[in-house]
Amino acid sequence: MTSEQELYIISHWDEMSCESLRKRFNSEFRTQYKTTGFHYHTKRLGLSKHIEHKYTPEQDAFIRDNSDKMTRKELAEAFNAKFGACVKEQAIEQRCFLRGWRPKTDGRFKVGGTPWCKTKGGRSEYVKTLKGGNATSFKKGIVPHNVLKVGTVKRYGHLVQVKTADGWKNRLRHMWELEHGEIPEGYIVTSVDGDQWTDDAGNLRLIPNRVLTTLMSNDWCGKGSLIVDTGIVWCELKNALEKQGINSDVKGVIE
To answer: What are the φ and ψ backbone dihedral angles of 170, each rounded to 5 degrees?
Structure first.
């Protein structure tokens, strides 16, 4: 950076913000200084937009004596009024934190305190004591703009679900219940061709969970109605034979 450029920064420092000066500087001298690089040179030249407040012992004593009696906002206002300063709430908070001066409240319930859920009238009465807060809350009967309508279909992983009046349901189960009623416990609905988006009720099969396990272990699911239906019958036959103590191993091959 040349001496001419440094003089330009110093002469215009009090006229605008640091970011505005950076943009004008780049335009004037056709440079491409970024924010961090420009800040480096302003600090090197001893320029700063931030002037740190120097606390006197009297001011520190005032903050210490009142830190547990006022909120940080009240303390900042009282400090500025008393000493004619312009110290922000965050600066007072930082001063107290570094010196271990505790605030008026730490946000926790005190011994003997009563939470809102145990006050007379409950939460509704407690909310009335707040300043604003509940004015923008949803009122009873208001529906948010992003609520999905009944009948909306969405994919969750490899499954497809549909929104009903009772909440989200598996789409295949919902289609089956519309046609045949409630599904018994321990049963599941599957599609013979593996299409979760199918609209054909003829592609659906209601099978026990144990049968589905066998179909999946043999990779028969979604292979078409011939293989799936045959697999279901084979599982039922095998189960019936085992219940009667008959050997279910097939002897011979059917051509």
So the answer is: -60, 130
